[in-house]
Amino acid sequence: MSQNAGKHRSHMGGLIKYANGESLQEINGTVEVPKNLGFWKTLFKYSGPGALVAVGYMDPGNWSTSITGGQDFGYLLMSIVLMSSLIAMLLQYMAAKLGIVSRMDLAQAIRARTSKSLGIILWILTELAIMATDIAEVIGAAIALNLLFHIPLVISVFITVFDVLLLLLLTFIGFRKIEAIVVCLICVILFVFAYEVILSRPEWANIFRGLIPVPRAFSGSNPAKVSGDTPLKDSLGIIGATVMPHNLYLHSSISQTRKYDYNDPKDVANTVKFTTWDSNIQLSLAFVVNALLLIMGVAVFKNGAVKDTSFFGLFQALSNTSMLSNGILIAVAKTGALSILFAVALLASGQNSTITGTLTGQIIMEGYVHMRMPLWMRRLVTRLISVIPVLICVSMTGGEPAIKEHLALNELMENSQVFLAFALPFSMLPLIILTDSKFEMGQFKNRLWVSILGWISIIALTFLNMQNFFGDDGAIVGFISQNPTPSQVSLANNLSWFIIVIIMALLIWTIYDMYKTSKSLRKEYPNALEARQENMDK
Protein backbone atom coordinates (compact mmCIF):
# COMPACT_ATOMS: atom_id res chain seq x y z
CA MET A 1 0.00 0.00 0.00
CA SER A 2 1.42 3.39 -0.89
CA GLN A 3 1.35 6.40 1.33
CA ASN A 4 -0.77 9.43 0.53
CA ALA A 5 1.39 12.07 -1.04
CA GLY A 6 1.91 15.77 -0.43
CA LYS A 7 0.47 17.59 2.56
CA HIS A 8 3.13 19.65 4.21
CA ARG A 9 2.35 22.45 6.57
CA SER A 10 4.58 24.87 8.45
CA HIS A 11 5.44 23.93 11.99
CA MET A 12 7.52 25.57 14.72
CA GLY A 13 8.32 28.82 12.99
CA GLY A 14 9.02 27.72 9.43
CA LEU A 15 12.35 25.87 9.66
CA ILE A 16 10.75 22.72 11.04
CA LYS A 17 7.74 21.47 9.11
CA TYR A 18 5.13 18.75 9.26
CA ALA A 19 5.88 16.05 6.70
CA ASN A 20 3.64 13.20 5.61
CA GLY A 21 4.37 12.75 1.93
CA GLU A 22 6.98 11.18 -0.29
CA SER A 23 10.26 10.09 1.25
CA LEU A 24 12.89 12.84 0.88
CA GLN A 25 10.45 14.75 -1.32
CA GLU A 26 13.11 17.17 -2.62
CA ILE A 27 14.92 14.35 -4.46
CA ASN A 28 12.18 11.73 -4.86
CA GLY A 29 11.78 10.83 -8.55
CA THR A 30 14.13 13.59 -9.71
CA VAL A 31 16.57 11.46 -11.74
CA GLU A 32 15.28 10.76 -15.24
CA VAL A 33 16.01 7.35 -16.79
CA PRO A 34 15.41 7.37 -20.59
CA LYS A 35 13.65 4.33 -22.02
CA ASN A 36 15.08 1.82 -24.48
CA LEU A 37 18.71 2.24 -23.48
CA GLY A 38 21.06 -0.73 -23.53
CA PHE A 39 21.91 -2.66 -20.37
CA TRP A 40 25.12 -0.76 -19.49
CA LYS A 41 23.73 2.70 -20.19
CA THR A 42 20.65 1.93 -18.13
CA LEU A 43 22.80 0.56 -15.30
CA PHE A 44 24.85 3.77 -15.36
CA LYS A 45 21.67 5.83 -14.95
CA TYR A 46 20.66 3.75 -11.94
CA SER A 47 24.16 3.76 -10.43
CA GLY A 48 24.65 5.97 -7.39
CA PRO A 49 22.30 5.03 -4.54
CA GLY A 50 24.29 1.83 -4.01
CA ALA A 51 27.43 3.91 -3.44
CA LEU A 52 25.74 5.90 -0.67
CA VAL A 53 24.70 2.63 0.95
CA ALA A 54 28.17 1.08 0.54
CA VAL A 55 29.67 3.97 2.53
CA GLY A 56 28.18 2.50 5.71
CA TYR A 57 30.13 -0.70 5.15
CA MET A 58 33.42 1.21 4.97
CA ASP A 59 32.71 3.24 8.11
CA PRO A 60 35.80 4.10 10.23
CA GLY A 61 34.32 1.94 12.99
CA ASN A 62 35.03 -1.17 10.86
CA TRP A 63 38.71 -0.50 10.28
CA SER A 64 40.38 -1.60 13.50
CA THR A 65 38.12 -4.68 13.71
CA SER A 66 39.24 -5.97 10.31
CA ILE A 67 42.92 -5.15 10.83
CA THR A 68 42.90 -6.79 14.28
CA GLY A 69 41.29 -9.91 12.77
CA GLY A 70 44.11 -10.13 10.24
CA GLN A 71 46.82 -9.56 12.84
CA ASP A 72 45.40 -12.22 15.15
CA PHE A 73 44.35 -15.00 12.79
CA GLY A 74 45.83 -14.38 9.35
CA TYR A 75 43.37 -15.04 6.55
CA LEU A 76 41.09 -17.26 8.65
CA LEU A 77 38.37 -14.59 8.91
CA MET A 78 38.22 -13.74 5.20
CA SER A 79 35.20 -16.06 5.02
CA ILE A 80 33.48 -13.97 7.72
CA VAL A 81 34.04 -10.78 5.72
CA LEU A 82 32.54 -12.53 2.66
CA MET A 83 29.50 -13.90 4.51
CA SER A 84 28.83 -10.51 6.10
CA SER A 85 28.88 -8.87 2.67
CA LEU A 86 26.48 -11.45 1.21
CA ILE A 87 24.05 -10.91 4.10
CA ALA A 88 24.30 -7.15 3.52
CA MET A 89 23.46 -7.61 -0.18
CA LEU A 90 20.36 -9.63 0.73
CA LEU A 91 19.04 -7.12 3.28
CA GLN A 92 19.78 -4.09 1.08
CA TYR A 93 17.96 -5.77 -1.82
CA MET A 94 14.86 -6.13 0.36
CA ALA A 95 15.13 -2.53 1.59
CA ALA A 96 15.42 -1.10 -1.94
CA LYS A 97 12.57 -3.28 -3.19
CA LEU A 98 10.31 -2.12 -0.35
CA GLY A 99 10.87 1.51 -1.31
CA ILE A 100 10.37 1.01 -5.04
CA VAL A 101 7.23 -1.16 -4.79
CA SER A 102 5.44 0.50 -1.85
CA ARG A 103 6.75 4.05 -2.48
CA MET A 104 7.44 4.29 1.24
CA ASP A 105 10.77 4.18 3.03
CA LEU A 106 11.22 1.72 5.88
CA ALA A 107 10.48 4.30 8.59
CA GLN A 108 7.23 5.33 6.89
CA ALA A 109 6.19 1.71 6.38
CA ILE A 110 6.85 0.78 10.02
CA ARG A 111 5.15 3.91 11.37
CA ALA A 112 2.07 3.33 9.16
CA ARG A 113 1.64 -0.07 10.81
CA THR A 114 2.48 0.72 14.44
CA SER A 115 0.97 2.90 17.16
CA LYS A 116 2.11 6.49 17.73
CA SER A 117 3.77 5.68 21.07
CA LEU A 118 5.74 2.77 19.61
CA GLY A 119 6.68 4.91 16.62
CA ILE A 120 8.24 7.52 18.94
CA ILE A 121 10.19 4.82 20.82
CA LEU A 122 11.53 3.34 17.58
CA TRP A 123 12.44 6.83 16.35
CA ILE A 124 14.46 7.51 19.52
CA LEU A 125 16.23 4.14 19.22
CA THR A 126 17.15 4.79 15.61
CA GLU A 127 18.27 8.35 16.36
CA LEU A 128 20.61 6.96 19.04
CA ALA A 129 22.04 4.52 16.50
CA ILE A 130 22.66 7.34 14.00
CA MET A 131 24.33 9.45 16.70
CA ALA A 132 26.48 6.46 17.67
CA THR A 133 27.61 6.20 14.05
CA ASP A 134 28.23 9.94 14.03
CA ILE A 135 30.51 9.63 17.08
CA ALA A 136 32.75 7.28 15.07
CA GLU A 137 32.75 9.81 12.22
CA VAL A 138 33.65 12.68 14.58
CA ILE A 139 36.51 10.68 16.06
CA GLY A 140 37.77 9.54 12.65
CA ALA A 141 37.60 13.01 11.06
CA ALA A 142 39.11 14.77 14.10
CA ILE A 143 42.01 12.31 14.28
CA ALA A 144 42.57 12.61 10.51
CA LEU A 145 42.78 16.42 10.83
CA ASN A 146 45.15 16.04 13.78
CA LEU A 147 47.40 13.61 11.92
CA LEU A 148 47.43 15.49 8.62
CA PHE A 149 47.64 19.10 9.84
CA HIS A 150 48.74 18.71 13.51
CA ILE A 151 45.63 20.53 14.71
CA PRO A 152 44.97 19.91 18.44
CA LEU A 153 42.25 17.32 18.97
CA VAL A 154 39.83 19.65 20.75
CA ILE A 155 39.98 22.13 17.87
CA SER A 156 39.73 19.28 15.34
CA VAL A 157 36.53 18.09 17.01
CA PHE A 158 35.03 21.58 16.72
CA ILE A 159 36.09 21.79 13.07
CA THR A 160 34.06 18.66 12.30
CA VAL A 161 30.94 20.64 13.22
CA PHE A 162 31.51 22.83 10.18
CA ASP A 163 30.99 19.97 7.76
CA VAL A 164 27.43 21.29 7.94
CA LEU A 165 28.66 23.87 5.39
CA LEU A 166 29.47 20.98 3.03
CA LEU A 167 25.87 19.77 3.39
CA LEU A 168 24.57 23.28 2.74
CA LEU A 169 26.58 23.37 -0.51
CA LEU A 170 25.44 19.91 -1.59
CA THR A 171 21.75 20.83 -1.24
CA PHE A 172 22.17 23.18 -4.23
CA ILE A 173 24.02 20.90 -6.66
CA GLY A 174 21.53 18.07 -7.21
CA PHE A 175 21.39 14.46 -6.03
CA ARG A 176 23.20 13.01 -9.04
CA LYS A 177 26.26 15.15 -8.27
CA ILE A 178 26.14 14.09 -4.62
CA GLU A 179 26.29 10.47 -5.81
CA ALA A 180 29.31 11.31 -7.97
CA ILE A 181 31.15 12.93 -5.04
CA VAL A 182 30.52 9.87 -2.87
CA VAL A 183 31.80 7.54 -5.61
CA CYS A 184 34.98 9.64 -5.93
CA LEU A 185 35.62 9.47 -2.18
CA ILE A 186 35.06 5.68 -2.24
CA CYS A 187 37.63 5.43 -5.03
CA VAL A 188 40.12 7.34 -2.85
CA ILE A 189 39.63 4.85 0.00
CA LEU A 190 39.87 1.87 -2.36
CA PHE A 191 43.03 3.22 -4.00
CA VAL A 192 44.80 3.85 -0.68
CA PHE A 193 44.26 0.37 0.71
CA ALA A 194 44.82 -1.40 -2.62
CA TYR A 195 48.14 0.44 -3.03
CA GLU A 196 49.34 -0.49 0.44
CA VAL A 197 48.28 -4.13 0.06
CA ILE A 198 49.93 -4.47 -3.37
CA LEU A 199 53.20 -3.20 -1.91
CA SER A 200 52.94 -5.84 0.84
CA ARG A 201 52.96 -8.74 -1.67
CA PRO A 202 50.36 -10.89 0.14
CA GLU A 203 50.00 -14.64 -0.33
CA TRP A 204 47.06 -14.69 -2.74
CA ALA A 205 46.59 -18.47 -2.56
CA ASN A 206 46.07 -18.25 1.21
CA ILE A 207 43.70 -15.32 0.75
CA PHE A 208 41.43 -17.31 -1.57
CA ARG A 209 41.61 -20.34 0.76
CA GLY A 210 40.49 -18.06 3.57
CA LEU A 211 37.23 -17.37 1.69
CA ILE A 212 36.13 -20.95 2.44
CA PRO A 213 34.35 -21.08 5.84
CA VAL A 214 35.83 -23.42 8.45
CA PRO A 215 34.57 -24.19 12.00
CA ARG A 216 37.69 -22.66 13.59
CA ALA A 217 36.51 -19.18 12.51
CA PHE A 218 33.82 -19.47 15.22
CA SER A 219 36.05 -21.05 17.86
CA GLY A 220 35.85 -19.55 21.34
CA SER A 221 38.15 -22.02 23.06
CA ASN A 222 41.36 -21.05 24.86
CA PRO A 223 43.80 -22.84 22.51
CA ALA A 224 42.62 -20.58 19.68
CA LYS A 225 43.53 -17.37 21.51
CA VAL A 226 45.97 -14.96 19.88
CA SER A 227 46.76 -11.58 21.43
CA GLY A 228 43.97 -12.08 23.99
CA ASP A 229 41.17 -12.56 21.44
CA THR A 230 39.44 -15.61 20.05
CA PRO A 231 38.31 -16.15 16.44
CA LEU A 232 34.72 -15.98 17.71
CA LYS A 233 35.22 -12.54 19.25
CA ASP A 234 36.84 -11.12 16.12
CA SER A 235 34.17 -12.76 13.94
CA LEU A 236 31.46 -11.13 16.06
CA GLY A 237 33.22 -7.81 15.68
CA ILE A 238 33.36 -8.09 11.88
CA ILE A 239 29.75 -9.29 11.54
CA GLY A 240 28.42 -6.74 14.05
CA ALA A 241 30.17 -3.89 12.26
CA THR A 242 28.87 -4.91 8.85
CA VAL A 243 25.07 -4.49 8.78
CA MET A 244 24.09 -1.02 9.97
CA PRO A 245 20.40 -0.25 10.67
CA HIS A 246 20.58 3.21 9.12
CA ASN A 247 21.61 1.72 5.76
CA LEU A 248 18.29 -0.11 5.47
CA TYR A 249 16.34 3.12 6.03
CA LEU A 250 18.59 5.00 3.63
CA HIS A 251 18.31 2.51 0.77
CA SER A 252 14.53 2.21 1.04
CA SER A 253 14.35 5.97 0.44
CA ILE A 254 17.04 6.79 -2.12
CA SER A 255 15.98 3.83 -4.29
CA GLN A 256 13.02 6.09 -5.11
CA THR A 257 15.16 8.88 -6.59
CA ARG A 258 14.82 7.41 -10.09
CA LYS A 259 11.71 8.40 -12.01
CA TYR A 260 9.60 5.37 -12.93
CA ASP A 261 5.96 4.51 -13.59
CA TYR A 262 4.83 2.79 -10.40
CA ASN A 263 1.58 1.73 -12.13
CA ASP A 264 3.53 -0.21 -14.76
CA PRO A 265 4.69 -3.57 -13.33
CA LYS A 266 7.37 -3.92 -16.01
CA ASP A 267 8.82 -0.52 -15.14
CA VAL A 268 8.74 -1.36 -11.42
CA ALA A 269 10.43 -4.72 -12.08
CA ASN A 270 13.05 -2.99 -14.22
CA THR A 271 13.75 -0.45 -11.47
CA VAL A 272 14.11 -3.22 -8.87
CA LYS A 273 16.44 -5.12 -11.20
CA PHE A 274 18.85 -2.27 -11.93
CA THR A 275 18.76 -0.93 -8.38
CA THR A 276 19.78 -4.39 -7.19
CA TRP A 277 22.62 -4.51 -9.73
CA ASP A 278 23.84 -1.11 -8.55
CA SER A 279 23.64 -2.13 -4.88
CA ASN A 280 25.45 -5.45 -5.37
CA ILE A 281 28.26 -3.88 -7.41
CA GLN A 282 28.86 -1.16 -4.82
CA LEU A 283 28.64 -3.60 -1.90
CA SER A 284 31.16 -5.79 -3.71
CA LEU A 285 33.53 -2.81 -3.65
CA ALA A 286 32.82 -2.45 0.07
CA PHE A 287 33.72 -6.14 0.48
CA VAL A 288 37.01 -5.52 -1.36
CA VAL A 289 37.81 -2.59 0.97
CA ASN A 290 37.08 -4.63 4.11
CA ALA A 291 39.05 -7.57 2.72
CA LEU A 292 41.97 -5.24 2.00
CA LEU A 293 41.85 -4.02 5.60
CA LEU A 294 42.06 -7.59 6.87
CA ILE A 295 44.88 -8.35 4.41
CA MET A 296 46.70 -5.25 5.69
CA GLY A 297 46.63 -6.77 9.15
CA VAL A 298 48.30 -9.91 7.80
CA ALA A 299 50.65 -8.74 5.06
CA VAL A 300 51.51 -5.08 5.65
CA PHE A 301 52.51 -5.50 9.29
CA LYS A 302 54.66 -8.15 10.90
CA ASN A 303 52.67 -10.78 12.77
CA GLY A 304 51.59 -9.41 16.16
CA ALA A 305 53.45 -6.12 15.63
CA VAL A 306 50.43 -3.82 16.02
CA LYS A 307 49.44 -3.63 19.68
CA ASP A 308 47.56 -0.33 19.38
CA THR A 309 44.78 -0.69 16.77
CA SER A 310 43.42 2.81 17.33
CA PHE A 311 43.68 5.22 14.39
CA PHE A 312 46.72 6.82 16.03
CA GLY A 313 48.33 3.42 16.51
CA LEU A 314 47.75 2.38 12.90
CA PHE A 315 49.07 5.71 11.61
CA GLN A 316 52.24 5.35 13.68
CA ALA A 317 52.63 1.68 12.67
CA LEU A 318 52.56 2.65 8.98
CA SER A 319 55.53 4.96 9.53
CA ASN A 320 57.42 2.60 11.89
CA THR A 321 59.76 0.58 9.68
CA SER A 322 60.30 -2.06 12.37
CA MET A 323 56.61 -3.06 12.15
CA LEU A 324 56.40 -3.45 8.37
CA SER A 325 56.76 -6.75 6.56
CA ASN A 326 59.08 -6.12 3.59
CA GLY A 327 61.71 -3.82 2.11
CA ILE A 328 59.38 -2.12 -0.40
CA LEU A 329 56.94 -1.09 2.35
CA ILE A 330 59.85 0.11 4.51
CA ALA A 331 61.23 2.24 1.65
CA VAL A 332 57.82 3.86 1.00
CA ALA A 333 57.17 4.28 4.74
CA LYS A 334 60.35 6.33 5.10
CA THR A 335 58.80 8.95 2.80
CA GLY A 336 55.74 9.15 5.08
CA ALA A 337 53.43 8.21 2.19
CA LEU A 338 51.84 5.14 3.81
CA SER A 339 50.70 6.93 6.95
CA ILE A 340 49.60 10.09 5.10
CA LEU A 341 47.50 8.04 2.65
CA PHE A 342 45.90 6.24 5.60
CA ALA A 343 44.90 9.57 7.17
CA VAL A 344 43.53 10.83 3.82
CA ALA A 345 41.38 7.68 3.51
CA LEU A 346 40.16 8.22 7.08
CA LEU A 347 39.11 11.80 6.27
CA ALA A 348 37.39 10.69 3.04
CA SER A 349 35.47 8.01 4.91
CA GLY A 350 34.30 10.53 7.51
CA GLN A 351 33.05 12.98 4.88
CA ASN A 352 31.21 10.23 3.02
CA SER A 353 29.45 9.21 6.21
CA THR A 354 28.50 12.85 6.82
CA ILE A 355 26.38 12.86 3.67
CA THR A 356 24.66 9.51 4.22
CA GLY A 357 24.15 10.00 7.97
CA THR A 358 22.35 13.30 7.42
CA LEU A 359 20.05 11.88 4.75
CA THR A 360 19.18 8.92 6.99
CA GLY A 361 18.44 11.20 9.93
CA GLN A 362 15.99 13.14 7.81
CA ILE A 363 14.36 9.92 6.57
CA ILE A 364 13.65 8.54 10.03
CA MET A 365 12.50 11.91 11.40
CA GLU A 366 10.01 12.34 8.55
CA GLY A 367 8.94 8.71 8.62
CA TYR A 368 8.47 8.15 12.35
CA VAL A 369 7.36 11.56 13.68
CA HIS A 370 6.39 13.39 10.45
CA MET A 371 8.84 16.21 11.13
CA ARG A 372 11.10 17.84 8.54
CA MET A 373 13.93 20.34 8.91
CA PRO A 374 16.56 21.61 6.44
CA LEU A 375 19.45 19.19 5.90
CA TRP A 376 22.02 21.68 7.24
CA MET A 377 19.99 22.16 10.44
CA ARG A 378 19.49 18.43 10.83
CA ARG A 379 23.24 17.90 10.48
CA LEU A 380 24.09 20.69 12.91
CA VAL A 381 21.83 19.31 15.65
CA THR A 382 23.09 15.73 15.27
CA ARG A 383 26.74 16.75 15.12
CA LEU A 384 26.54 19.11 18.13
CA ILE A 385 25.06 16.28 20.22
CA SER A 386 27.64 13.79 18.95
CA VAL A 387 30.67 15.97 19.71
CA ILE A 388 29.75 16.29 23.41
CA PRO A 389 30.97 12.80 24.49
CA VAL A 390 34.06 13.18 22.28
CA LEU A 391 34.93 16.55 23.84
CA ILE A 392 34.39 15.13 27.33
CA CYS A 393 36.68 12.20 26.51
CA VAL A 394 39.41 14.47 25.08
CA SER A 395 39.15 16.91 28.00
CA MET A 396 39.32 14.19 30.68
CA THR A 397 42.44 12.64 29.13
CA GLY A 398 44.08 15.93 28.11
CA GLY A 399 46.68 15.79 30.89
CA GLU A 400 47.35 12.07 30.49
CA PRO A 401 50.01 10.43 28.28
CA ALA A 402 49.09 10.41 24.59
CA ILE A 403 48.56 6.64 24.55
CA LYS A 404 45.84 6.94 27.22
CA GLU A 405 44.05 9.60 25.20
CA HIS A 406 44.24 7.43 22.08
CA LEU A 407 42.93 4.34 23.87
CA ALA A 408 40.12 6.33 25.50
CA LEU A 409 38.93 7.62 22.12
CA ASN A 410 39.11 4.10 20.68
CA GLU A 411 37.11 2.78 23.65
CA LEU A 412 34.48 5.51 23.18
CA MET A 413 34.12 4.62 19.51
CA GLU A 414 33.76 0.89 20.27
CA ASN A 415 31.24 1.50 23.06
CA SER A 416 29.16 3.83 20.89
CA GLN A 417 28.63 0.97 18.44
CA VAL A 418 26.60 -0.90 21.10
CA PHE A 419 23.60 1.28 20.18
CA LEU A 420 23.74 -0.15 16.67
CA ALA A 421 23.11 -3.60 18.14
CA PHE A 422 20.07 -2.19 20.00
CA ALA A 423 18.54 -0.68 16.87
CA LEU A 424 19.39 -3.41 14.35
CA PRO A 425 16.52 -5.87 15.08
CA PHE A 426 13.95 -3.05 14.84
CA SER A 427 14.91 -2.39 11.23
CA MET A 428 15.61 -5.95 10.06
CA LEU A 429 12.55 -7.70 11.48
CA PRO A 430 9.91 -5.26 10.12
CA LEU A 431 11.77 -5.24 6.79
CA ILE A 432 11.39 -8.97 6.23
CA ILE A 433 7.79 -9.00 7.55
CA LEU A 434 6.85 -6.27 5.07
CA THR A 435 8.67 -7.76 2.08
CA ASP A 436 7.32 -11.25 2.84
CA SER A 437 3.74 -9.93 2.65
CA LYS A 438 1.83 -10.43 -0.61
CA PHE A 439 -0.66 -7.80 0.57
CA GLU A 440 2.13 -5.21 0.80
CA MET A 441 4.28 -6.27 -2.15
CA GLY A 442 2.00 -8.14 -4.55
CA GLN A 443 4.01 -10.11 -7.10
CA PHE A 444 7.21 -8.58 -5.71
CA LYS A 445 7.00 -10.35 -2.35
CA ASN A 446 10.10 -12.27 -1.37
CA ARG A 447 10.66 -15.60 -3.06
CA LEU A 448 10.83 -18.57 -0.71
CA TRP A 449 14.63 -18.87 -0.83
CA VAL A 450 15.05 -15.13 -0.21
CA SER A 451 12.68 -15.33 2.75
CA ILE A 452 14.45 -18.35 4.26
CA LEU A 453 17.90 -16.79 3.89
CA GLY A 454 16.56 -13.51 5.22
CA TRP A 455 15.12 -15.05 8.38
CA ILE A 456 18.30 -17.07 8.98
CA SER A 457 20.42 -13.92 8.55
CA ILE A 458 18.24 -11.80 10.83
CA ILE A 459 18.08 -14.39 13.61
CA ALA A 460 21.82 -15.06 13.38
CA LEU A 461 22.78 -11.35 13.39
CA THR A 462 20.46 -10.58 16.30
CA PHE A 463 21.75 -13.56 18.30
CA LEU A 464 25.41 -12.71 17.64
CA ASN A 465 24.90 -9.06 18.56
CA MET A 466 23.12 -10.02 21.78
CA GLN A 467 25.78 -12.62 22.62
CA ASN A 468 28.42 -9.92 22.25
CA PHE A 469 26.92 -8.13 25.29
CA PHE A 470 28.15 -10.82 27.70
CA GLY A 471 31.48 -11.81 29.24
CA ASP A 472 34.49 -10.07 30.74
CA ASP A 473 35.25 -8.48 27.35
CA GLY A 474 31.62 -7.96 26.33
CA ALA A 475 30.11 -4.75 24.98
CA ILE A 476 28.27 -3.81 28.20
CA VAL A 477 31.17 -4.29 30.61
CA GLY A 478 33.14 -1.77 28.53
CA PHE A 479 30.83 0.96 29.84
CA ILE A 480 31.67 0.04 33.44
CA SER A 481 35.43 -0.48 33.47
CA GLN A 482 38.38 -1.20 31.18
CA ASN A 483 39.74 -3.63 33.78
CA PRO A 484 36.60 -5.11 35.31
CA THR A 485 36.47 -7.08 38.55
CA PRO A 486 34.41 -10.30 38.75
CA SER A 487 31.60 -8.38 40.49
CA GLN A 488 31.58 -5.77 37.70
CA VAL A 489 31.42 -8.52 35.07
CA SER A 490 28.47 -10.05 36.95
CA LEU A 491 26.75 -6.65 37.05
CA ALA A 492 27.34 -6.18 33.32
CA ASN A 493 25.89 -9.62 32.55
CA ASN A 494 22.78 -8.84 34.62
CA LEU A 495 22.40 -5.53 32.78
CA SER A 496 22.78 -7.42 29.49
CA TRP A 497 19.90 -9.72 30.38
CA PHE A 498 17.78 -6.71 31.39
CA ILE A 499 18.51 -4.97 28.07
CA ILE A 500 17.75 -8.12 26.08
CA VAL A 501 14.39 -8.52 27.88
CA ILE A 502 13.51 -4.92 26.95
CA ILE A 503 14.58 -5.48 23.34
CA MET A 504 12.51 -8.68 23.10
CA ALA A 505 9.47 -6.94 24.63
CA LEU A 506 9.73 -4.08 22.12
CA LEU A 507 10.16 -6.56 19.25
CA ILE A 508 7.03 -8.46 20.31
CA TRP A 509 5.18 -5.13 20.55
CA THR A 510 6.38 -4.18 17.06
CA ILE A 511 5.37 -7.53 15.53
CA TYR A 512 1.96 -7.41 17.25
CA ASP A 513 1.25 -3.87 16.04
CA MET A 514 2.33 -4.66 12.48
CA TYR A 515 0.22 -7.80 12.17
CA LYS A 516 -2.74 -6.13 13.87
CA THR A 517 -2.64 -3.16 11.48
CA SER A 518 -2.08 -5.39 8.47
CA LYS A 519 -5.10 -7.48 9.43
CA SER A 520 -7.32 -4.40 9.78
CA LEU A 521 -6.11 -3.09 6.40
CA ARG A 522 -7.04 -6.38 4.77
CA LYS A 523 -10.55 -6.03 6.21
CA GLU A 524 -10.80 -2.39 5.17
CA TYR A 525 -9.52 -3.04 1.65
CA PRO A 526 -10.55 -6.64 0.92
CA ASN A 527 -10.19 -6.20 -2.84
CA ALA A 528 -6.91 -4.26 -2.80
CA LEU A 529 -4.75 -7.25 -3.68
CA GLU A 530 -7.06 -8.36 -6.49
CA ALA A 531 -7.13 -4.83 -7.90
CA ARG A 532 -3.37 -4.63 -7.81
CA GLN A 533 -3.04 -8.03 -9.49
CA GLU A 534 -5.48 -6.97 -12.24
CA ASN A 535 -3.35 -3.88 -12.83
CA MET A 536 -0.21 -6.03 -12.96
CA ASP A 537 -1.78 -8.35 -15.54
CA LYS A 538 -2.73 -5.54 -17.92
UniProtKB/TrEMBL annotation:
Any Pfam family the entry gives: Nramp
Segments traversing the membrane: 73-96, 117-145, 151-173, 180-198, 281-301, 339-359, 380-398, 418-436, 448-466, 495-515
Record's keyword annotation contains ATP-binding: no
GO MF assignments: cadmium ion transmembrane transporter activity; manganese ion transmembrane transporter activity
Swiss-Prot/TrEMBL GO biological process terms: iron ion transmembrane transport
Species for this entry: Philodulcilactobacillus myokoensis
Broad class of where this protein is predominantly found: membrane
Name the UniProt record assigns to this protein: Manganese transporter
Keyword Zinc: no
Database matches in NCBIfam families: nramp, Nramp_1, PRK00701.1
